[in-house]
Amino acid sequence: xxxxxxxxxxxxxxxxxxxxxxxxxxxxxxxxxxxxxxxxxxxxxxxxxxxxxxxxxxxxxxxxxxxxxxxxxxxxxxxxxxxxxxxxxxxxxxxxxxxxxxxxxxxxxxxxxxxxxxxxxxxxxxxxxxxxxxxxxxxxxxxxxxxxxxxxxx
Length: 154
Description:
By secondary structure, this protein is of the alpha+beta class. The protein is built from 4 helices and 6 strands, in the order ααββββββαα.
Protein backbone atom coordinates (compact mmCIF):
# COMPACT_ATOMS: atom_id res chain seq x y z
CA UNK A 1 0.00 0.00 0.00
CA UNK A 2 2.82 2.44 0.82
CA UNK A 3 4.58 1.80 -2.52
CA UNK A 4 1.35 2.29 -4.45
CA UNK A 5 0.52 5.45 -2.52
CA UNK A 6 3.80 7.05 -3.67
CA UNK A 7 2.95 6.32 -7.33
CA UNK A 8 -0.83 6.68 -7.62
CA UNK A 9 -1.89 10.22 -8.55
CA UNK A 10 -5.32 9.79 -6.97
CA UNK A 11 -3.64 9.00 -3.66
CA UNK A 12 -0.77 11.50 -3.82
CA UNK A 13 -3.15 14.37 -4.45
CA UNK A 14 -4.72 13.60 -1.06
CA UNK A 15 -1.56 13.65 1.07
CA UNK A 16 0.99 15.57 -1.04
CA UNK A 17 -0.42 19.05 -1.48
CA UNK A 18 -2.68 18.25 -4.45
CA UNK A 19 0.25 16.97 -6.53
CA UNK A 20 0.95 13.72 -8.35
CA UNK A 21 4.17 11.91 -9.17
CA UNK A 22 4.56 11.03 -12.85
CA UNK A 23 6.96 8.45 -14.30
CA UNK A 24 7.15 4.92 -15.63
CA UNK A 25 9.35 4.26 -12.55
CA UNK A 26 12.08 2.44 -14.48
CA UNK A 27 15.71 3.11 -13.53
CA UNK A 28 17.02 6.01 -15.61
CA UNK A 29 13.55 7.39 -16.42
CA UNK A 30 12.58 10.96 -15.66
CA UNK A 31 9.97 11.67 -13.02
CA UNK A 32 8.13 14.83 -12.06
CA UNK A 33 5.99 16.08 -9.20
CA UNK A 34 3.09 17.97 -10.81
CA UNK A 35 0.05 19.94 -9.75
CA UNK A 36 -2.82 17.46 -10.03
CA UNK A 37 -5.07 19.76 -12.09
CA UNK A 38 -2.80 22.15 -13.97
CA UNK A 39 0.21 19.90 -14.58
CA UNK A 40 2.57 22.65 -13.37
CA UNK A 41 5.85 20.96 -12.48
CA UNK A 42 7.21 21.59 -8.98
CA UNK A 43 10.00 18.97 -8.80
CA UNK A 44 11.90 17.01 -11.44
CA UNK A 45 14.42 14.20 -11.34
CA UNK A 46 15.57 10.80 -12.47
CA UNK A 47 14.70 7.37 -11.10
CA UNK A 48 17.94 5.97 -9.62
CA UNK A 49 16.58 2.78 -8.03
CA UNK A 50 13.19 1.10 -8.30
CA UNK A 51 12.84 -2.14 -6.37
CA UNK A 52 9.11 -2.66 -5.87
CA UNK A 53 7.94 -2.73 -3.09
CA UNK A 54 11.10 -2.13 -1.06
CA UNK A 55 13.09 0.84 -2.33
CA UNK A 56 12.65 3.87 -4.57
CA UNK A 57 15.46 6.38 -5.01
CA UNK A 58 15.22 9.57 -7.07
CA UNK A 59 17.17 12.68 -7.84
CA UNK A 60 15.20 15.72 -6.67
CA UNK A 61 15.47 19.20 -8.07
CA UNK A 62 13.40 22.18 -9.07
CA UNK A 63 12.81 22.81 -12.76
CA UNK A 64 14.95 25.98 -12.67
CA UNK A 65 17.88 24.53 -10.67
CA UNK A 66 20.16 24.36 -13.72
CA UNK A 67 19.66 28.09 -14.29
CA UNK A 68 20.52 28.72 -10.63
CA UNK A 69 23.50 26.30 -10.77
CA UNK A 70 22.01 24.12 -8.02
CA UNK A 71 22.70 20.41 -7.98
CA UNK A 72 19.79 18.02 -7.50
CA UNK A 73 19.51 16.21 -4.20
CA UNK A 74 18.60 12.54 -3.65
CA UNK A 75 15.48 11.13 -2.01
CA UNK A 76 15.21 7.48 -1.05
CA UNK A 77 12.08 5.74 0.19
CA UNK A 78 12.85 2.49 2.02
CA UNK A 79 9.84 0.30 2.83
CA UNK A 80 10.23 -2.69 5.15
CA UNK A 81 8.21 -4.98 7.38
CA UNK A 82 8.67 -4.08 11.01
CA UNK A 83 7.05 -5.89 13.94
CA UNK A 84 3.91 -6.77 12.00
CA UNK A 85 3.63 -3.33 10.42
CA UNK A 86 5.26 -1.40 7.61
CA UNK A 87 8.12 1.00 8.21
CA UNK A 88 8.77 3.81 5.73
CA UNK A 89 12.09 5.60 5.96
CA UNK A 90 12.58 8.70 3.82
CA UNK A 91 16.15 9.92 3.41
CA UNK A 92 16.79 13.21 1.64
CA UNK A 93 20.52 13.62 0.97
CA UNK A 94 22.36 16.69 -0.22
CA UNK A 95 20.29 19.37 1.50
CA UNK A 96 21.89 22.21 3.39
CA UNK A 97 19.82 21.95 6.61
CA UNK A 98 20.15 25.62 7.53
CA UNK A 99 19.21 26.91 4.08
CA UNK A 100 15.66 28.07 3.34
CA UNK A 101 15.28 25.14 0.90
CA UNK A 102 16.57 22.69 3.52
CA UNK A 103 14.26 23.95 6.27
CA UNK A 104 11.24 24.03 3.98
CA UNK A 105 11.95 20.55 2.68
CA UNK A 106 12.29 19.03 6.15
CA UNK A 107 9.05 20.68 7.28
CA UNK A 108 7.36 19.51 4.10
CA UNK A 109 8.47 15.89 4.50
CA UNK A 110 7.17 15.79 8.07
CA UNK A 111 3.73 16.91 6.97
CA UNK A 112 3.60 14.71 3.86
CA UNK A 113 4.68 11.50 5.60
CA UNK A 114 2.35 12.12 8.57
CA UNK A 115 -0.53 12.64 6.17
CA UNK A 116 0.36 9.52 4.16
CA UNK A 117 0.31 7.47 7.37
CA UNK A 118 -3.03 8.93 8.39
CA UNK A 119 -4.51 8.31 4.93
CA UNK A 120 -3.42 4.67 4.89
CA UNK A 121 -4.67 4.05 8.44
CA UNK A 122 -7.97 5.95 8.34
CA UNK A 123 -8.80 6.53 4.68
CA UNK A 124 -8.49 10.31 5.12
CA UNK A 125 -5.36 12.50 4.95
CA UNK A 126 -4.49 15.35 7.26
CA UNK A 127 -6.47 18.43 6.15
CA UNK A 128 -3.39 20.63 5.60
CA UNK A 129 -1.91 18.32 2.93
CA UNK A 130 -5.17 17.61 1.10
CA UNK A 131 -5.15 21.07 -0.46
CA UNK A 132 -2.93 22.74 -3.03
CA UNK A 133 0.58 23.23 -1.55
CA UNK A 134 2.08 26.69 -1.89
CA UNK A 135 5.16 26.19 0.24
CA UNK A 136 5.80 26.54 3.96
CA UNK A 137 3.90 29.30 5.73
CA UNK A 138 5.64 32.63 5.87
CA UNK A 139 5.76 34.67 9.09
CA UNK A 140 3.29 37.49 9.40
CA UNK A 141 4.57 40.93 8.41
CA UNK A 142 4.82 42.06 12.07
CA UNK A 143 6.87 38.95 12.98
CA UNK A 144 9.36 39.72 10.18
CA UNK A 145 9.86 43.25 11.51
CA UNK A 146 10.44 41.99 15.06
CA UNK A 147 12.96 39.44 13.81
CA UNK A 148 14.93 42.10 11.97
CA UNK A 149 14.11 40.72 8.54
CA UNK A 150 12.69 42.94 5.90
CA UNK A 151 9.17 42.20 4.66
CA UNK A 152 10.57 40.99 1.33
CA UNK A 153 13.09 38.62 2.97
CA UNK A 154 10.49 35.98 3.86
